[in-house]
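ok so i was messing around last nite and threw this chain in just to see what happens. nothing serious, just curious
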Amino acid sequence: MKKATRVLSLTMAAAMAAGVLGGCSSSAQGGTASTADTSSAASTTASSADSGNVIRVGVVCSMTGGSAIYGEGAQNAVDMAVEEINSGDSGYTVEIVNGGKVADDAKDAKQAMNAYNKVMADSPEAIVGSFFSSVTLPMAEQASKDGMLLLATGATNADVTLKGDTIFRNCFIDPYQGEKMANYAVEKLSAKTAAVFYQTGNDYSEGLMNAFVEKAAELGLEIVDTEAFAEGDKDFKAQMTNIAAADPDVVFAPIYYAEAGLAITAARAAGCDAVFMGGDGFGSVKNYASAEDLEGSVYCS
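result:
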């Protein structure tokens, strides 16, 4: 029990670091970080420690594809956390399985299970990951069956931790974000009308959207238009033209930063001057639209 508690607390420390830095690439911080030295040091330290005091942790995140920025931040954060923990006096040493590297889920559910099985083959005592709800949900279901401690870093879908007693997270949930942004629209922006723009088939986007709409109805915030897009879509001219015609006070777009930047740019071109609002997926939107078009936009994080 003592070691299980230590596993959870030290894994939480690593996950919190990954969550904080998950959206920050090394280049965004002004340089290129080298992870080889810390990973090697962590592995060497772990191998020389008393095996009873070594906590083996697997980490899963998106390392390739359009969401690789999250994985790069996660790798940097994990390296930092391992170095800090292993140089401390806790009496325990953390070893990252898979050679000290984050296993790649590529933001794909099938690949996520491959990554999960890959780290499981190294017999970890806990797994940190993943960042996205859509890939964490199947991992959480399997981890529960395996009795594996899994700590999600950015998976905000409410169902993630309902998969079992060994599933935890260190971030808020979708309903919280959706409700808070509806409250903000009414209480801080004095909005009377809103439009919604979300991604179909995306657990994160639909979760925030549903919570926002429900809270908006409670607050008397009228939804004057709802538009959607599918994964891979890049042209939002038609949807933004419809939203501009509805003339809402705010547009709630619970989507990720790249699509958010495209949507806001298209909205301004269509003559929409509403305040755009998002969830934590908006994090790096400043890199995908002009400062002029983004002026006044807000998001929950």
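not much to say yet. The chain has a mean pLDDT of 87.
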